[in-house]
Write a structure and sequence with these properties.
By secondary structure, this protein is mainly beta. The chain is built from four helices and 35 strands. The chain has a 22-stranded antiparallel β-barrel. It starts with a helix and ends with a strand.
Length: 608
C-alpha cells in the first residue's frame, strides 16, 4: 500500500501544477439509469458509472479488468485467463451482487450462491457499466444485497474492426457493423479471444504447465419506432468459453498442474415495447438467460440453469416535473439442474414503486418500496430512502438507508451434496440493512469533483454450509470508507490530461467470531492518469490491494500498473499498444493462483 500512496501522491502533486489547469474542459455530469428513474450519480449514494471512453482509455478487455477500479468492489479470479472471476460489493458474498446485461438478470441460478462468473464477460460491445453499491432489493428484488452491476451494450453506426496480439500467444479480434438513426437501429458484432495463457496454479510454486483460454461472443441489438409514441427494441448476446484449469490431485490434494478443463455457454436476450398511453410511459418487456457449465476433471460436473423475467413498468411525473415516479410488476422464474442429479424451479412475483421529489432548489428526496412473494420461501418487503442536499461552495451532502433480501439458491433449496441426517433445516431468505452518508464536492468550473462515503452493511440469517447441510446461521457486518475523485487537469503537449482516484477501506467481519471475511482486502486503491491528444492518447493505471484473508492462509498485498496507448494514423485507423503488470510484479489475486508477469500487446483499430 505504501508504494501506491507514494505513486498517488506524485500524481496528485503533478495534477496540482497550475500550468496545466488553465485550459481544462469541464467534466460531464454523469447520469445513472439502473435506479429505474434516471438520476444524477453525484446525488445518488453508492452510484458510479464507467463509460465507453474510460473502458477504451484503459484498454480493458474483460469486465474483471476494470471493475476493481470502483471503490468498494473486490474482484478475485482463480486463474489469470478463464479462471472463475467473482465480485464482492462492500464485503457481501458474490451471490449477493445482481448482474444485469441490457436489463436482463444473468446470475447463474445453478451456482451454489447464485453468483455470476465475470471471467468471460468481454467488453467490446459494452457502452457503459453502472454500479449501485448497497442494498438495491427495493428496485431489483433478490440477489441485490451487496448491490447491482448493470451493463448496457451499444448501438453501432458504421463498421468497427479491432485486432490485437501479444504475450502468451494471445490473439483478439472483433467485428461490429450496424446502422442507427432516430427511427431505427440495428447492429451485430462478434468477438474472439484466444490465448495459451499461464499456469493457473502459480508457477512460483513449481507449476509450469500453461493453461489456455478461448472465448467467443456474438451479439445483436435492434430498435424501431412504430410511431411517435411507440418503440420496440431488443438485444441478444451469446458467449462461449473454454479454459484449461488446475485442480487438487491426490495424494497431496494441493493446487497443482492438472489437465482439468471447464467450458461454459451462456446466452441472454430481451424484447421490450415502450408506449405512451393514459398520460404514462409504459414498458412491457420479457427477458431470458440460459447457461450451461461443464467441468472435466477427477470430479466431473455439469450444471444447467435458465431464468425468465416478465416486467411491466409505468413512469409518470407531476408537480411540473418536480415529482417523478415509476410503478411496476414482475414475474421471475428460474430453474436449474445440478451435477448431483437434483433440480428445482423457483419463482417470484413482485410489485414495486419508486419516486423522486425535487423538494426545493437544493433538496432531492427519493424513495422505493418493493414486495416480493417467492413461491417457496414466503414474502419479503424491502425499502430504500435517500436524500441529497446541495450546500454552499459546491458541496453535496447525501445519505441513504435501505434493506435487502436474498432467497435461497437452487443448490441451497435442494440441499445439494448434503450428507447430514434428515430432516434438513427449513431455510429462510437472507436479509440485510444498510446506512451510508456521502459528502461530495465539485468545483465551480466543473474541472474537479470528488466524494467521500461512509457506510455500514449488516447481513443476517446468511446461509452457510455447516456439518453437511445448509443452515441460516451467519451474521456479517461491513464498515467502510470510500473515497473517489476526478480532475480535468488541462492541456500539456497539445493534449488534455485527466486524473481519476479511488480508495476503499473495508472492515468486513463475521459477527459471531469477529473473524475477517475471506477475499475482502482491508484496503484497495487505484489511480489512473489519462492523456488525450490529437493523435496520441493513453492512460497509466496503478492499482493496489492490502493483504487479505483467504482459504488456507493470507494472500499478500500487491501493487501493479498497466499502460495503454493509441495512435491515430487517420480519422479511421489507429494503432494500439498496452503493457500489463508494467513493473513485472509477482502477485496473486487468490491465494495459490498466479497472475501474469509483464506482458505486451499491440493491435489495430478501424472505424468507418
Amino acid at each position: 500500500m505504501r508504494h501506491l500512496l507514494l505513486a498517488t501522491s506524485a500524481l496528485v502533486a503533478f495534477a496540482s501544477t497550475p500550468a496545466f489547469a488553465e485550459d481544462a474542459d469541464p467534466l460531464p455530469e454523469v447520469v445513472v439509469t439502473a435506479t429505474r428513474l434516471p438520476a444524477i450519480a453525484a446525488r445518488t449514494p453508492g452510484a458510479r458509472v464507467i463509460d465507453s471512453r474510460a473502458i477504451e482509455q484503459r484498454g480493458a478487455v474483460f469486465a474483471a479488468d476494470i471493475l476493481a477500479d470502483i471503490p468498494g468492489l473486490s474482484v478475485v479470479r482463480s486463474g489469470a485467463f478463464g479462471g472463475v472471476a467473482s465480485v464482492r460489493i462492500r464485503g457481501a458474498t458474490p451471490g449477493k451482487t445482481l448482474v444485469l446485461i441490457d436489463g436482463v438478470p444473468v446470475n447463474d441460478a445453478a451456482e451454489i450462491g447464485g453468483a455470476f462468473d465475470f471471467s468471460g464477460l468481454e467488453l467490446g460491445d459494452i457502452d457503459r457499466i453502472e454500479v449501485l453499491s448497497g442494498p438495491q432489493s427495493s428496485l431489483w428484488g433478490s440477489d441485490a444485497i451487496g448491490g447491482v452491476i448493470a451493463f448496457t451494450t451499444r448501438e453501432t453506426d458504421g463498421v468497427r474492426v479491432e485486432a490485437e496480439g501479444g504475450s502468451y500467444g494471445t490473439l483478439r479480434g472483433r467485428l461490429a457493423a450496424g446502422v442507427a438513426n432516430d427511427r431505427y437501429a440495428f447492429g451485430a458484432w462478434v468477438s474472439r479471444f484466444d490465448t495459451d495463457g499461464i499456469s493457473a496454479a502459480d508457477e512460483a510454486n513449481g507449476n509450469p504447465e500453461a493453461d489456455g483460454f478461448e472465448n467467443t461472443t456474438v451479439g445483436a441489438r435492434a430498435r424501431y419506432a412504430l410511431s411517435p409514441t411507440a418503440t420496440i427494441d431488443g438485444a441478444l448476446r451469446w458467449s462461449d468459453s473454454a479454459a484449461d484449469i488446475d485442480g487438487f490431485p491426490a495424494p497431496t490434494f494441493r493446487l497443482a498442474d492438472t489437465f482439468d478443463t471447464t467450458a461454459s455457454e451462456q446466452w441472454s436476450g430481451s424484447a421490450r415495447l415502450r408506449i405512451t398511453a393514459l398520460g404514462l410511459d409504459h414498458q412491457f418487456s420479457v427477458s431470458a438467460s440460459d447457461i450451461t457449465r461443464d467441468t472435466i476433471s477427477s470430479f466431473p460436473s455439469t450444471f444447467e440453469a435458465d431464468r425468465q423475467v416478465y416486467r411491466w413498468q409505468a413512469d409518470g411525473a407531476a408537480r411540473r416535473g418536480s415529482l417523478t415516479w415509476a410503478v411496476g410488476a414482475e414475474r421471475e422464474e428460474a430453474s436449474g439442474s445440478l451435477s448431483s442429479g437434483l433440480s428445482d424451479e423457483l419463482g417470484t412475483t413482485s410489485l414495486f414503486g419508486t419516486a423522486s421529489l425535487q423538494a426545493s432548489d437544493r433538496l432531492t428526496l427519493t424513495g422505493a418500496l418493493r414486495w416480493d412473494d417467492t413461491d417457496d420461501f414466503g414474502a419479503e418487503t424491502t425499502g430504500r430512502v435517500s436524500a441529497a442536499l446541495d450546500l454552499d461552495g459546491g458541496f453535496i451532502l447525501s445519505g441513504a438507508w435501505g434493506t435487502g433480501f436474498k432467497a435461497p439458491s437452487i443448490s441451497q433449496s435442494v440441499c445439494d451434496f448434503c450428507f447430514a441426517p434428515r430432516p434438513f433445516p427449513v431455510l429462510t431468505p437472507e436479509t440485510a440493512d444498510s446506512v451510508e452518508i456521502a459528502l461530495g464536492w465539485a468545483s465551480a468550473d466543473g474541472r474537479l469533483d470528488g466524494r467521500a462515503t461512509v457506510y455500514r452493511l449488516n447481513v443476517e440469517d446468511q446461509i452457510s454450509y455447516v456439518a453437511g447441510r445448509y443452515i441460516n446461521i451467519a451474521e456479517t457486518r461491513s464498515d467502510g470508507v470510500e473515497l473517489e475523485g476526478r480532475a480535468a487537469l488541462g492541456t500539456v503537449a497539445g493534449g488534455s490530461l485527466d486524473l481519476t482516484l479511488a480508495y476503499a477501506w473495508t472492515d468486513a467481519r463475521d459477527r459471531t467470531t469477529d473473524a475477517r471475511l475471506l477475499r475482502v482486502p482491508e484496503q484497495a486503491a487505484s489511480a489512473t492518469l489519462g492523456w488525450t491528444g490529437t493523435r496520441l492518447s493513453g492512460a497509466l493505471t496503478v492499482r493496489s490491494e492490502s493483504d487479505q484473508d483467504d482459504s488456507g492462509g493470507v494472500r499478500e498485498g500487491f501493487v501493479t500498473a498497466n499502460l495503454n496507448a493509441a495512435w491515430a494514423l487517420t480519422g479511421q485507423v489507429s494503432l494500439t499498444a498496452r503493457i500489463e503488470n508494467l513493473a513485472d510484479e509477482t502477485y496473486q489475486q487468490v491465494l495459490g493462483y498466479g497472475e501474469p508477469g509483464r506482458s505486451a500487446y499491440v493491435g489495430i483499430r478501424l472505424r468507418y
